[in-house]
Amino acid sequence: MNRRGPLSERALILAPIGRDAQIAGAILREAGYDSDPCPDLPALARELDAGAGCVIISDQGLHRADLAPLDRFLKNQPSWSDIPIILLSLRGDGTEQIPAAGKLAERLGNVTFLERPLHPASLIGTVRTALRGRRRQYEARARLKELREGEQRLHTALKAGRLGAWTLDLPSLTLHCSDSCKAHFGRGAEGSFLYADFQDSIHPDDRAQVQAAFEQTVKTGTDYAVEHRLHWLDGSVHWVDLRARAIRSRDGAVSQLVGVSSDITARKRADFERERLLNELAAERAALSDLTATLEQRVRERTAALTTEVAARERAQEQLLQSQKMESIGQLTGGVAHDFNNLLMAVMGNLQLLKKRFRDDDRAQHLIAGALEGARRGASLTQRMLTFARQQELKTTSADLLSLVGGMQDLLDRTLGPQFELRFDLSEGLPAAQVDANQIELAILNLAINARDAMPDGGTICIGLDKAAPPAAKGLKDAEYLRLRLSDTGSGMDGATLKKAIEPFFSTKPTGKGTGLGLSMVHGLAVQLGGMLELESTVGKGTTATLWLPIAEAPAEIPEARPAPAESGSRAIILVVDDDPLIAMSTVEMLEDLGHQAIEANSGAQALEILKDGQAIDLMLTDQAMPGMTGLELAEIARKERPKMPILLATGYADLPASQIKLPRLSKPYLQTELQEEINRLLDGAA
C-alpha cells in the first residue's frame, strides 16, 4: 500500500465479514487518508501498538469475539492517549444491533456510532473529526514532554548555581523546600522544615524586615526579595538570600510564592570585613589629622598599607567568585559531555555494525563513512568539554616533545596553507615531558588554528621549545618545566578580550566558525597535567601562548606499533550492564557480531540477580554512572559472588570515586576494535 503519511495518522479497519473493509478503505483512500485492514482483534491490537489515528470496527467484528487484546491496549494507554473508535452498525438498528452497546461504549472509551451502509460523506467527516481529536492528543503528549524537559533543565540550573528551591502555599502557610534549600537553613535532607521552623530561625533583629517584605508581596503581588540573618540549630549565625515570584489564583489574590534561596554568608562576611577595614582606616585618618607633618608620613604609610590590604582582599574575593563560577560551569559542561558521549557510543557502535553488513555496497559505505566522521567530530568536541571540566581520562607517559613537535610539521603545513610561514626554535638535549602525547598534539593544533584565524592575510607562526623555571607568581612548583611557546604576528587581543580568552564558549570568531572551547581545552589540559597555560597579547602585534609542562622522571618512552586485535579463540558469555537502553543494545549488537553471547541488564540490581541465579558468565562489562548503584559498587559486590570473573568498566570520566578494587577501563565512546581488544586481553588473562 502506498502510504501518504505516518502510521500515527492512519485508520485501522476491523470488518472481517462482508465488504465493509474494502468499501471503507476505498472511501478513505479517495479522500486522502491512509488505512489498513485487520483480519481479527489480535491483529488489530498489534497494529495499534505500531501507531494509529483512529479505529473503525464493524459490529460483526465484535460479535462473540474475545476483547482481551483490545482491552489490554486501551488499559495501557498513556495518560495523554484516548484512541478514537468508530463503531459501524446497521441502519435503523442503532444500539439494538449490539444488545450491550451502552456497556460496550463505556468499555471502549472514545466511541462514535456510524450506521451502515456507509455513506462516504458521513464516514469521511467522522474520520476527519476523530483524527483531529487524535492530533490534539499528540500535541498534549508533546507539551508533557516539553514540561518534563523543562523541569530537568531547571533542576540542572539550580544545581549548577548552588540554589535551593522553595514554595509557600497561602493562606495555609504550607512550606515545601528542596534539600539544597534546607541545607541553607542548617537542616538535613531527611528532616521536615515547616513555616514555623523558618520563622524561628530568623534572627530577632531581622524579623520585622522579613515580615514587612512578606506582607508587601502578598498585598501587591510584587516580587519577594530579602536578605537576612538566621540561626542554625548549632547556634551559628548565617546569611540567606530569598527571592520569589507571587502566583495569583483566579480571583486575583496571591495564592503562592515560588522562589529560590542561596547562602550568602561568605559574601556578607567579606563585606563586613571590608567595611571594618574602611572604618578603621577612616578612624585612623581622623585621629592623625591633628598630628605634625612627620606623623603625617606615618599616616600615609599606614593608609597605603590598609589600602593595599583592602585591594588584596577584594582581588582574592573576585578570584574566589570567578573560581566558583568556572567550577559550576565545568560541572555542568562535564555532565553534558558525559551524556553526549553515551549518545555517540550508540551512534558509532551501530554505524560500525552497518559498515560490516554492507561491505559490497559502495554507496552505503560512503554514507556510513560520512556519518562516522561526523560522530568522531562529536566525540572530539566532547573530549574538549571534558578537558575543560578536567574530567577527561589522560594517558600520561614520558614523551619526547622535541620529536613530537618536529613530527607535526607536515600536518601543520597542510592545515595552515601557503600564506603562512612556519618557524621552529627548538632547543636540543631537552628532557622528556610527563604528558598525554595525543592531547598535546591536539593542543598545538588548536593553538596553530587560532593563530591562523588571527592572520586573515597571512603571517608568521613560530613554535619554540626550551627548559625554564616559571616565576613564583605563576603559582607552579619551584622547579624547572618544559616551556612550549606558539607566537603569531596577528591582530592580537586587548586586555578585556585577553581576560576572557580561556572562558568556555567565549569566542571572537563569527557564529559557526568556532566552538569557544579551544583555549578552554588547552587550559584544562595544562592544569590537569600539573602545568599551566599563559597568554600574552598586544593589539596589532600578535599573541604568544605558553604551555608550562612538567618534566618526566624517566626517559622518553618509544611508542610501539599497536597491532590489530587478534581474533579470540573462545566465544564468551558476557554480561552487559548499562541503564541506557540505546547503549546496552548497541554494545550487545557489537558483542554478538564478534561471536560472543551477550546478556543485557539495565541496572546493578538486575545484574546481581543474574549472577546469583547461577548463570554462567565469563566476563562482565558495566557502565559507571548508573542510578541506584554505580559500576564500582556493583563490581565490589560481584567480586564476592564471582571472585575470578573479569570485570571491565566503561566510562567517560577520568576521576572516579575511591574503591576497594581497581578495574580495567574502556573510555567512551569506544570502537568495536577497542572493545574486542580489551575483551581478548581479559579473557586470555583469566584462562
TrEMBL record:
The UniProt keywords, alphabetically, are: Phosphoprotein
Domain (Histidine kinase) spans 335-553
Report the domain of life of the source organism.
Bacteria
Q: Does the keyword Phosphoprotein apply?
A: yes
Recorded catalytic reaction(s): these are: ATP + protein L-histidine = ADP + protein N-phospho-L-histidine
Q: What are the residue boundaries of the Response regulatory domain, all occurrences included?
A: 573-683
Q: Write down which residues bear the modification named 4-aspartylphosphate.
A: D623
Residue ranges of the PAC domain? Answer: 224-276
**Stretches that traverse the bilayer:** none
> Which InterPro entries does the record cross-reference, listed alphabetically?
CheY-like_superfamily, HATPase_C_sf, HATPase_dom, His_kinase_dom, HisK_dim/P_dom, HisK_dim/P_sf, PAC, PAS
* Keyword Cell division assigned: no
State which Enzyme Commission number(s) the record gives: 2.7.13.3
Q: Which Pfam families match?
A: HATPase_c, HisKA, PAS_3, Response_reg
Which PANTHER family does its entry note? SENSOR HISTIDINE KINASE, TWO-COMPONENT SENSOR PPRA
| Record protein name field | histidine kinase
What is the organism of origin for this protein?
Answer: Dongia sedimenti
